[in-house]
Design a protein that fits this description.
Number of strands: 3
Shape: globular
CATH superfamily: BolA-like
Radius of gyration: 13 Å
Strand content: 25-35%
Order of helices and strands: HEEHHEH
CATH architecture: 2-Layer Sandwich
Distance between the termini: 30 Å
Number of helices: 4
Length: about 80
Amino acid sequence: MTNEEVAAHIKQATGIDQVIVKSEGSHFQVIAIDDQFESMSRVKRQQMISSPLSEQIADGTIHALSIKTFSQAQWQREKLFNQ
């Protein structure tokens, strides 16, 4: 599964506009940015991203999944902090 396929799968299932995916083999890192995360707990955020990928996780296509979620404002601060 390519990074683009993972991102498209998440976007289609959740309606999130901005999804960044990086991978190394079957280990995927996902960064999702959307204002709907502001009112969600960390667990709900993780579930929202991992749930659409449950088949790929179960069949081993995705062995490891790292998820980071941000609202637009949080993402702007994160980008400034990591420059």
